[in-house]
């Protein structure tokens, strides 16, 4: 893979964003659950210790697909979160392993990132302590920030390239995380799991973005919970808020890899869909959907950091890299087996020729292949 090293390999996140689009990676927990390395329901990343080869293989597939960033597989790996899950599920995980999970995750991400000149993002999780006893502020600012600091200390020690806070439902919690992340001196990206209705206490997306920027975030956006269409609507509102406040920040989108048009304003996100989690395949984005998302994100909303969250498989990331090849001004490692539609043109059969036309794919309405088709779902509590 050494041929994939590009001239941008020595540049940091902000320099790369200034140059053009940065392609993120995709789903780890959901994809590793499908592959048999994560327990559904727990959604915790012990596989970094138990199955490091499986984690590395998925990192490698994202890298080969064109990801410029490899995120450490550390979502939910905080003492606070794992302790609660272990108590709830009566697991016997050793709390000492939380630190081990994070250290090992950094090593795995770095090893793979270095194979292709990618950056390592230390993935900082929201913490349960913020909602202790069901209230906002929960265990208090000092306690909550200390939980973030414990995560950041390991990432700094392990030399990640930047920090990425993810899956915040409350802007106040995101602000507290951003403040701690910014103290490290590393570039700070932060995404909220919100839709057009704003955070869980109704702070509008525009105001959320401004507050995150003022707290110290360099890159601001949304992840998880909603599909690309809803994510882009939310990001457009964030952008408008930033512009009105006279603030310039890079925007970031890592939405679901699933269609979820029913869920545009339910604060709980896609987990309320009846198909979650074992029948989501029928909702998977096609590569054409992803190319359209990447194009709209970049052209219409001005999003610079484009990746995916749950359901975004390596081939989805490849679709982003293919769509934005010209804007990025360079190829990606897996290009030897990915030349868009041209390989179909080279095929002998006339039927394949029709499919060599991008318009064929753009106009295609995929069938479900089932006799019974439900258009939109009833939400399940
Ligand atoms: Zn997700």
Secondary-structure blueprint:
Blueprint: H1 13-19, E1 22-23, H2 29-34, H3 47-50, H4 52-65, E2 69-71, H5 79-89, H6 96-113, E3 119-125, H7 141-157, E4 162-168, H8 171-183, E5 188-192, H9 205-215, E6 219-223, H10 228-244, E7 250-254, H11 287-301, E8 305-306, H12 314-323, H13 325-328, H14 342-345, H15 350-355, H16 358-363
Parallel strand pairs: 1-8, 2-3, 3-4, 4-5, 5-6, 6-7, 7-8
Helix pairs in contact: 4-6, 4-12, 7-8, 8-9, 9-10, 10-11, 11-12
Bound molecules: zinc ion.
Describe the structure concisely for a colleague.
This protein has a single domain, classed as Homocysteine-binding-like domain (TIM Barrel, Alpha-Beta Barrel). Helices cover 43% and strands 9% of the residues. The chain contains 16 helices and eight strands.
Describe this protein's structure.
- By secondary structure, the protein is of the alpha/beta class.
- The chain has one domain (13-340): TIM Barrel (Alpha-Beta Barrel), CATH 3.20.20.330.
- Helix content is 43%, strand content 9%.
- The chain has helices at 13-19, 29-34, 47-50, 52-65, 79-89, 96-113, 141-157, 171-183, 205-215, 228-244, 287-301, 314-323, 325-328, 342-345, 350-355, 358-363; strands spanning 22-23, 69-71, 119-125, 162-168, 188-192, 219-223, 250-254, 305-306.
- The protein has an 8-stranded parallel β-sheet.
- α4 packs parallel to α6 (96-113), α4 (52-65) runs parallel beside α12 and α9 (205-215) packs across α10.
- It is globular, with a radius of gyration of 20 Å.
- The protein binds zinc ion (ZN).
- Zinc ion binds at residues 224, 309-310.
